[in-house]
Structure to design on (586 residues):
């Protein structure tokens, strides 16, 4: 399994990560080797074995867990924004979404 | 008395007024001052000196085993008012407005938080070298890793800085460092301990558990933190039994399974021999040992290294520089801010796993990787279900080797992943497992892993305790701890 630099850039963009030119090559190699290892899952009899096997996506409770929808204690607005790198009037401030 | 004394002894010392909560806290702070510049287990020491008696003195009572006992937490558990970083620059400066359920429960039990412990960044790693701040050293050999990702927790307990710590285990992150540092590490059944306030890595695998010197201590801490929590929808409706009552020392007739898949070529010959000696001792105690097969074990690591990164890539999407932690400066627009913040804030291993996870979940690859891995997860669960029809406990090495040298595996992520080969299948199946010290090889501890049935911590702890008592080596005490003995 090998990944191209283009693959790395595509996945990085999906993950909102920026990778430098130098990182691209190392990542392509490292991710490729990890994915090759994962390819074990495609080997030999296993593929046949998997037909009809249910996927385990979570552990524990198999049904939806609910609770009564009652108002309770919640964080005060000033506490909720206390960790924000930038806040104003109890709101999170971010750079402009659109340029210009 | 020191922090190699059992929790029961420390508790007795407090109830008889031979010592005080304030004195225990001072011991802890003195030990940290004496050895932590070399071990580097703590990211942050938060305990105030001297005021603990006023807060806890009145609470010391016969039925409050943890009242007045100092402890420390892996830094991925939220502590109200105390910085919680997951050893990541992206969370530097984050002061949670709430505490994890386990922290509240230990507060209620009267235990005294000393500080927050180093770890691999976001719990991704097996050596604590992936900490965004600095590596932790193994108290048995400072040139070696303590294991990971709960390496700070294992090292702090092993060197006598605190009598117990909490870690988290997603693929072996409590058990493997416990093995490397010569302490007991318990990963409870998935859902037994609330994950509320545990910073999520892989939500279907993560579980909080104790690191201690003895199995009885692990049972005492588990008692305090286990049980249903309405704030974690995956927390199980289980009436928690009296775990200490299960420690009878009697394992006559207990059926123990040995799976050859856990003794493969990657397992060091010395480790194999040490574990088999432990198995022989279990037999002498009256356990019935038989071979079992867990045929899909060889696929567990591949499945894990798709499922865990996939869940992580989703869980770590929240670190975007908006609500907490670090934000990169000079962003031109919102997208630029996200990318600059995440690229500067996450370390290389976290980025690798986010990328792997994103790839495995991306259009066109989902069925090929993620879905297939989840199907394999089902097969692994079924392997265990079949085995537990015939045996009560499964025994294996915790890790294929003893502690490796710092830097030895850091350049090859895949080799690092292989050190989780004996522990990962247990998380995929959600089962409880414990690592108990079973000997030393060239001065380095070896861990014996015992795996139990879902929610059958009682049998698991009974077996581990009976072994530990018969083996007679607990608590293991590294030289580093002898030199600072009071």
């Amino acid at each position: 399994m090998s990944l191209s630099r283009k693959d790395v850039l595509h996945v990085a963009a999906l993950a909102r990560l920026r990778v430098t030119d130098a990182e691209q090559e190392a990542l392509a190699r490292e991710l490729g080797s990890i994915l090759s290892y994962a390819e074990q899952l495609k080997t030999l009899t296993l593929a046949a074995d998997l037909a009809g096997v249910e996927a385990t996506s979570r552990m524990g409770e198999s049904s939806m867990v609910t609770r009564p929808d009652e108002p309770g204690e919640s964080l005060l607005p000033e506490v909720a924004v206390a960790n924000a790198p930038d806040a104003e009037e109890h709101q999170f401030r971010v750079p402009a979404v659109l340029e210009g | 008395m020191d922090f190699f004394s059992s929790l029961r002894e420390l508790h007795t010392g407090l109830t008889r007024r031979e010592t005080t909560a304030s004195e225990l806290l001072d011991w802890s702070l003195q030990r940290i001052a004496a050895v932590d510049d070399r071990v580097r287990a703590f990211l942050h020491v938060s305990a105030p000196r001297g005021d603990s008696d006023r807060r806890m003195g009145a609470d010391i009572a016969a039925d409050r085993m943890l009242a007045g006992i100092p402890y420390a937490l892996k830094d991925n558990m939220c502590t109200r008012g105390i910085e919680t970083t997951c050893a990541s620059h992206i969370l530097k400066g984050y002061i949670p407005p709430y505490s994890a359920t386990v922290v509240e429960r230990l507060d209620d039990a009267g235990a005294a938080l000393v500080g927050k412990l180093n770890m691999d960044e976001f719990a991704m790693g097996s050596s604590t070298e992936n900490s965004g701040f600095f590596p932790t050293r193994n108290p048995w050999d400072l040139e070696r890793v303590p294991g990971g990702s709960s390496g700070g927790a294992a090292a702090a307990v092993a060197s006598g800085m605190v009598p117990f710590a909490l870690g988290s285990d997603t693929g072996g992150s409590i058990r493997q460092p416990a093995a490397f540092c010569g302490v007991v590490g318990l990963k409870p059944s998935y859902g037994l301990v609330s994950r509320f306030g545990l910073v999520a890595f892989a939500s279907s695998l993560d579980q909080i558990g104790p690191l201690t010197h003895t199995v009885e201590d692990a049972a005492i801490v588990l008692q305090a933190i286990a049980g249903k929590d309405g704030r974690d929808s995956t927390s199980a409706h289980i009436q928690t039994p009296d775990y200490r009552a299960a420690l009878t020392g009697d394992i006559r007739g207990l059926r123990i399974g040995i799976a050859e898949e856990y003794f493969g070529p990657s397992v060091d010959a010395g480790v194999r021999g040490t574990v088999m000696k432990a198995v022989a001792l279990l037999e002498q105690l009256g356990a019935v040992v038989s071979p079992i097969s867990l045929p899909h074990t060889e696929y567990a690591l591949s499945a894990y290294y798709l499922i865990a990164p996939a869940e992580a890539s989703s869980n770590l999407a929240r670190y975007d520089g908006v609500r907490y932690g670090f934000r990169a400066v000079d962003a031109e627009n919102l997208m630029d801010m996200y990318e600059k913040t995440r690229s500067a804030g996450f370390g290389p291993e976290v980025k690798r796993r986010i990328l792997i996870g994103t790839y495995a979940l991306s259009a066109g690859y989902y069925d090929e990787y993620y879905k297939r891995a989840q199907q394999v997860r089902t097969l692994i669960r079924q392997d265990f279900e079949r085995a537990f029809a015939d045996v009560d406990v499964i025994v294996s090495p915790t890790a294929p080797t003893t502690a490796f040298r710092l830097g030895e595996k850091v350049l090859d992520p895949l080799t690092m992943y292989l050190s989780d080969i004996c522990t990962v299948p247990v998380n995929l199946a959600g089962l409880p497992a414990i690592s108990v010290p079973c000997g030393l090889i060239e001065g380095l501890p070896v861990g014996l892993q015992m795996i139990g049935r879902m929610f059958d911590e009682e049998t698991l702890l009974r077996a581990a305790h009976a072994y530990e008592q018969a083996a007679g080596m607990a608590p293991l005490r590294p030289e580093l701890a002898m030199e600072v003995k009071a």
